[in-house]
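Quick one:
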Amino acid sequence: MSGLRARGLGPAAAVAALAAREATRAAWVRAVAVALVLGPAVIAATSSGDGSAVGRLRAFVSWSVDLVGVCLTLTAVFLAAGLASRLRRGELTQLACGPLGRVGLVAGWSGGVAAVGAGLAAIALVTVGLGAAALAARADPADRPALRQALTAWARVEPRPPDPAAVAAAVAARLSDLRRTGQAPADGEGGDDLARALEAEVRLGLRSVRPGQTIGWTFSGVRPGPEVRELTLRFRFDVDEARETGRVTQREIPGRFWFRAPGSQEASSLDGTWRGGRPVELRAPVEVLEGSHEVELLFTSRAPPGSTVVFPREGPRLIHEAGGLASNALRAGLLLAARVGFLAAVTAVAAALLDANLAALAGLFALFLGAAHGFLADALVPGTFGLLDGPLRGLASAALAAGADLSRVDVADALATGQAIPWAEVGRAVGLDLVLRGGLALSVGGALFARRELGALR
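Output:
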């Protein structure tokens, strides 16, 4: 124990306990806790969704979890910003008399805030789960099978994307052929636009299949539970009658899907005729995995001559049961707790260097940057900033890389629609966002925190 205190972990834990105690004593934090309990009850009594029992249940879960997310993130920011006021008033002077490192002070405060946020998340999600169970219990008996289906978590496994190296090689070969035949300028003028057009063409070819041809995808991480008996294949395709004109029809196309484990010579097939432009679901026995967590899916087109089957960019999906609402809510709670911890770390670092108002503003900026991460990343295309495009785009990309992507998983939508939150996303949020990014922020903030204002300022 003395060794821990010598490294500053003991005082840091004391700071965390102080932060947690101060938070639980704050009247507005208690009001947030009450809102997280009463809010879902009000939503359950007033929401109607699309008028059906399932629609009402999904509206209740979605709105309630959205409320939880907003309350938790704002609570984390404003609690962590309170460190600035405590430093200014000298309330941490006695704690700092021990071997408390610069990082330990900031990390301890953010850890206490994160613990309070995790506790609030647990209370809120338990309340939402009880509310969902109550709505299902009060529903008409005829609606209960559909409600059980809606409360089931479903894992959606997407195929591996095309190999970027293979795509780049195909584009380079195509560009070389065009230049050799004089169809592209040899000096490279307009090469970027041509390369992007060729890349789009190559990627379109990878998801298109002509009569008699076969296209394939590989799915990794297919881990159905022992009670799962079948996989669901969900797909959609368009039928291009003349690719050079882009004329798409909803013609019915015969074909065959094949399932096989990688390297296996055995395959299970599903034959049928499907109309283009419409979503289709097929069932396959779970035995197609052959004990593996990977499976290859092949499609052979039997379309008439001149008809090309074009799959969307995301390709088909494999879907299987992945537990109930309780297990999905647990993953959601861990994900929310990791986000709260990251925001608390960033705001606490700002609070150690700035006043409380500016620290809260910095935390809100980190929240905005994370919530809009996907949109901002897509918007950073070449030429966005004109003459200063290179350095400004580099700075913006660095800011996005340093911040957590809070838009990666929509927790409310996942719980409401039954999309299982992958454990991989939970691990990424905890390991990459909380530990790595949050820890880096605390380390940098501790290094900059050269002069601690532990005495009261006059």
